[in-house]
Amino acid sequence: MGMFATLSLLAVGGGNTIVPEIKRLAIDQYHWLSERQFLDVYSLGQITPGPTSLYVTLIGYRVAGVLGGVVAVAALYLPAALVALAANRLWDRLAGTAWQPALHDGLAPVTVGLMLAATYSLGRTAISGPTTAVVMAAVAGLLLWRRLNPALVVLGAGIACWLLGLW
Amino acid sequence: MKAPRVGLLDLVAAFAQLGAASFGGGLAPFIRQMVVYRRRWMDDHEFLRGLEITQMLPGSNAINLTVYVGQRFQGTAGGLLSVAALAVPGVVALLALGFLYFDRGYLPAARSFLAGVGAAAVGLALANVIQVGRRGITTLSGVLLMLATFAAIGLLRLPLAPVLAALGGLGVWLHWPRDARGRRLPAGRGEVRP
Fold first, then answer.
1. For the whole model, what pTM was predicted?
2. Nearest-by-Cβ selection for A115 from B80, B129, B192
3. What pLDDT, in 10s, does the model give residues A131-155?
4. Which candidate from A70, A109, A158 shows the least CB-CB separation from B120?
């Protein structure tokens, strides 16, 4: 569990950008979960309320029960919150300097690259054939086309696949 | 706008409610609804300033925005307690599901359901990448930087921290504002347009 805390110190913020890193540590390095279990756990985080990064609760739960779940969330969120506290203070100090636009424009592409890497990393497990590929494309298209509640769309896709699986 | 008095309990109640009622990630719109419209704690201008800071940091908008709002009214304690309140409902729900999944093996029975949810979650992540990318990447160097980050983390699986330091530093250097003659502006001056 201490390793989880170390990881979180490297990861500024939570969210999708650090999914590949968490995946690498939880599966390859510590063998806490199988690839399949990681995807299941991540998916459950998408359909439960609150920030989707809370799925780390389940990784902690797997390792050390309820306490492990709570510790995992704290280990991920506390450093992120402290960084945010510091960043808010720093940002006010940088008001009107060239640092503000440089940081703003310069870090955005890196953030998007991290998000893309996370999507790819999840997709390698989740997209196992034509059906899952169609579901992925349909959900992405639907969400880009209309402002829908993402959790309801994700949940609907699960129910649709479940119904199809019954036949 | 005169800053209203918002106590620690107000913050905890509001963010616990958000934590229970917001689904599917992308909490920023939910937070904005509550803070700007429903409770009128701050105006849109102040909220967007928080969002601007949030978008620079790689990672969760939800955590940083929550800290921003909590810190604004109750300092460090407000920021930390607000984040904790936001997380609690989801953690409880996930622990219950974790019991079913790991201890009872209940959910693997619904394999096709989880396969659908998993594929849809990737679709959601993809839609997010496209939406944020269209807003945040406006230059060719930005596109190249994005691709380099993707290749380093996604394909080569390099460790996060050094990649972030190297490419983030490069990004800031490349996007440093310049004056009309293309010279780099000094770091400390206050004459930069927003």
1. 0.74
2. B129
3. 889 999 999 999 889 877 777 888 8
4. A158
